[in-house]
């Protein structure tokens, strides 16, 4: 019996040399061998690819002699033009809208998707044709992108047969110094069966030089979700909540005093610190909070006395380079 390793699948995937699949001139083109290995591993016979790009997935299926595969893309020149859900399709189909159109295949063993990574690479109006409002690479905001990606992923999961799988290849990105983890922010539909990290050997972020500090992103994520039940849709979604440190039950007096001085931005008299921290949870539960603030200032080397009743942060030993 063959094992996972016979298909070159481990939790880390690395292909230093490009494969024969797809076009090496197509920005964001995947290697294809991860798709090939998944087909072997799952034994999939009925396959759908969403976001077909340069035709990498199609090339893989052709190479393996798989006839029952459909490859979809918004680009109308990608293949035969999509005619609606009531047609039998095979091969490459262009003009298929992932947001508005139904998947023309139901009950697939494996659906593979490689969506745009928000605006990292623009496709419609750049790589092909004219700008399209439903191109995920043209979303006006990151939040809009995640919302639309969730719609597509939910649609894919619903179309799977029982024990079918959705494999999605997706990366992280950085915009204006802020890191965005797409796999953290998108909703998960189905049971996460495997999470593989794919090493990127020719990433632009590695070749480019940037001002300031920048850790190049040299990986992508290949997530495999399995549909274990017919009717149940397991959904895991991230909820982001912002709380005030003053309301925290785990923040220490040291945390609060340091944060107060940071927010002031310089030396501060005790009265200003009292006023700033008076509404904190700790102060509300301590009638002697002023004494506690003074004790904290005197106890820790983080704080220095500038003059009588005036304090500042001491960065001598704690400043981060």
Automatic annotation (TrEMBL):
Give the domain of life: Bacteria
Q: Does the keyword Transferase apply?
A: yes
Which keywords does this Swiss-Prot/TrEMBL entry list? Answer: Methyltransferase, Plasmid, Transferase
Any single GO molecular-function term of the entry would be:
methyltransferase activity
GO term, biological process aspect, one? methylation
The answer to whether keyword Transferase applies is yes
Task: State what protein this is by name.
Answer: DNA methylase N-4/N-6
């Amino acid at each position: 019996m063959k094992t996972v390793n016979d298909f070159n699948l481990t939790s880390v995937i690395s292909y230093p040399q490009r494969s024969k699949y797809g076009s090496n001139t197509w920005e964001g083109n995947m290697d294809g061998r991860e798709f090939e290995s998944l087909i072997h591993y799952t034994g999939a016979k009925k396959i759908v690819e969403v976001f077909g790009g340069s035709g990498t997935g199609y090339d893989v299926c052709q190479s393996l002699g798989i006839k029952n595969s459909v490859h979809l893309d918004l680009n109308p020149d990608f293949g035969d033009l999509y005619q609606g859900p009531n047609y039998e399709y095979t091969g490459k189909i262009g003009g298929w809208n992932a947001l508005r159109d139904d998947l023309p295949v139901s009950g697939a063993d494996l659906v593979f998707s490689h969506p745009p990574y928000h605006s990292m690479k623009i496709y419609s109006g750049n790589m092909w044709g004219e700008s399209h409002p439903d191109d995920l690479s043209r979303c006006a905001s990151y939040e809009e992108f995640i919302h639309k990606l969730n719609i597509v992923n939910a649609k894919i999961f619903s179309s799977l047969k029982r024990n079918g799988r959705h494999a999605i290849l997706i990366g992280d990105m950085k915009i204006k110094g802020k890191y965005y983890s797409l796999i953290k922010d998108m909703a998960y539909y189905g049971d996460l069966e495997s999470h593989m990290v794919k090493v990127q050997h020719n990433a632009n972020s590695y070749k480019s030089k940037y001002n300031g500090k920048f850790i190049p992103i040299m990986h992508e994520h290949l997530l495999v979700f399995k549909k274990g039940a017919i009717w149940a849709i397991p959904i895991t979604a991230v909820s982001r909540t912002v709380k005030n440190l003053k309301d925290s039950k785990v923040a220490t007096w040291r945390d609060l005093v340091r944060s107060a001085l940071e927010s002031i931005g310089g030396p501060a008299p005790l009265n200003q610190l009292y006023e700033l921290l008076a509404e904190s949870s700790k102060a509300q539960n301590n009638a002697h909070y002023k004494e506690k603030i003074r004790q904290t200032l005197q106890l820790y080397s983080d704080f220095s006395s500038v003059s009588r009743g005036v304090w500042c942060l001491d960065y001598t030993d704690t400043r981060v380079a």
